[in-house]
């Protein structure tokens, strides 16, 4: 049976510095839960608190409803995989994986059986007699993963496990990790600063900034419905464009960009005022480039052809630089200096308060 993890109002201090101040989150049984955020936001600190490497200055950490604050790491029944593999260089693959079982005094016959089983799951059973020095980075990380899960932990923690691998291997290994996690159905907390990795691998993602959770959601909602401008610009590319609300009676209104382009929005919040300044977040791929008609007037400054897409660096009439991405099949590459019209689908945009940058309105449909 998989377990849940509850982090309740936890506080972490290093000396006089408070790194995490009252953070709460819930990880569901069997969930693949990712902590994502820029360097220094406190991801590793939180992970180390869960396993017990770091002290906790306030709040509670619960596993399956039981408070584990005072339980030493050894007795928490958690496995951890680190960025630098941390496997023993003087032991073969098999010995590395068997180590944790020996420490737990599992009978020798059972050890062989369990090691073979796990090596098959992580698909390195053919390498069991190799020494780590003769393994690739990906294979070493499979050993580290096998070593973490062979003890049948209740919780698997991973701290940037793919950071030392090259781009192609990262993709291969993230797929392997996801499928192994599914197969053994273990509650997993994964730390990364790589947003694509987080989107690809997670059931849910917590976006962290300065020790504070900004949003906890599915990868799709994090991408399509960011709750503030930090999330919208941290995940993928987002253009934040100045605009104004034009409101009549009722709950409908228009967003008016500089130079008059108007987009109709439904279900606007009552608190929104006529004439209020806003920031409109538009993903580069949500623009439609036209040669004439309704839209934002802009000029193409430069472009980069990327095979599947073409990436345009564009300047709006008000001088703001934005980015626009078009599919390969959309049209021929448009020359630099061309004047274009950019139309946006109102359902694909997110609108934020100009000053405090929290969500004001959301687009209707997905
Ligand atoms: N042992 C320590 N003593 C003092 N400050 C620390 C210690 N460990 C981490 N910090 C500080 O705590 C903050 C959070 O660090 P943490 O390593 O948790 O961030 P992170 O989000 O995991 O970053 P990265 O992606 O770079 O690993 C940083 O400001 C860091 O400098």
UniProtKB/TrEMBL annotation:
Listed GO CC annotations: ATP-binding cassette (ABC) transporter complex, substrate-binding subunit-containing
Membrane-spanning residues: none
InterPro entries assigned to the protein according to its UniProt record, in alphabetical order: AAA+_ATPase, ABC_transporter-like_ATP-bd, ABC_transporter-like_CS, ABC_transpr_MalK/UgpC-like, Mo/tungstate-bd_C_term_dom, NA-bd_OB-fold, P-loop_NTPase, Transp-assoc_OB_typ2
Domain ABC transporter: residue ranges: 5-235
Keywords: ATP-binding, Nucleotide-binding, Transport
GO MF annotation: an example: ATP binding
Database matches in PANTHER family: MALTODEXTRIN IMPORT ATP-BINDING PROTEIN MSMX, OSMOPROTECTIVE COMPOUNDS UPTAKE ATP-BINDING PROTEIN GGTA
UniProt name for this protein: Iron(III) transport system ATP-binding protein
Species name: Pelosinus propionicus DSM 13327
């Amino acid at each position: 049976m998989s377990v849940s993890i509850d982090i309740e109002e936890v506080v972490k201090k290093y000396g006089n510095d408070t790194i995490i101040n009252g953070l709460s989150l819930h990880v569901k049984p069997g969930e693949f839960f990712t902590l994502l955020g820029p360097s220094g936001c406190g991801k590793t600190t939180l992970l180390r608190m869960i396993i017990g490497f770091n002290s906790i200055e306030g709040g509670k950490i619960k596993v399956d409803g039981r408070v584990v604050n005072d339980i030493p790491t050894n007795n928490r029944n958690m496995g951890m995989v680190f960025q630098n593999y941390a496997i023993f260089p003087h032991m073969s693959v098999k010995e590395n994986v068997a180590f944790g079982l020996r420490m737990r005094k599992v009978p020798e016959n059972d050890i062989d059986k369990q090691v073979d089983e796990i090596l098959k799951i992580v698909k390195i059973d053919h390498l069991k007699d190799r020494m780590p020095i003769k393994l690739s980075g990906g294979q070493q990380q499979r050993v580290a993963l096998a070593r973490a899960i062979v003890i049948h932990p209740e919780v698997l923690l991973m701290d940037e496990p793919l950071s030392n691998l090259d781009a192609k291997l990262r993709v291969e290994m993230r797929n392997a990790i996801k499928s192994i996690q599914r197969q053994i159905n273990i509650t997993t907390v994964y730390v990364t600063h790589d947003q694509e990795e987080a989107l690809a691998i997670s059931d849910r993602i917590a976006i962290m900034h300065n020790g504070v959770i900004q949003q906890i959601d599915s990868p799709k909602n994090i991408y399509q419905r960011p709750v503030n401008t930090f999330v919208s610009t941290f995940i993928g590319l987002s253009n934040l464009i100045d605009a104004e609300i034009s409101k009549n009676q009722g709950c409908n209104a228009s967003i008016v960009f500089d130079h008059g382009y108007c987009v109709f929005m439904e279900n606007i919040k009552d608190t929104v005022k006529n004439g209020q300044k806003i920031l409109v977040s538009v993903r580069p791929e949500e623009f439609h480039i036209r040669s004439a008609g309704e839209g934002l007037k802009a000029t193409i400054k430069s472009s980069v052809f990327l095979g599947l897409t073409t990436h345009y660096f564009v300047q709006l009439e008000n001088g703001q630089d934005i980015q626009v991405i078009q599919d390969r099949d959309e049209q021929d590459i448009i020359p630099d200096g061309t004047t274009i019209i950019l139309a946006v689908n109102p359902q694909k945009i997110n609108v934020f308060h100009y000053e405090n940058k929290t969500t004001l309105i959301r687009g209707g449909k997905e």
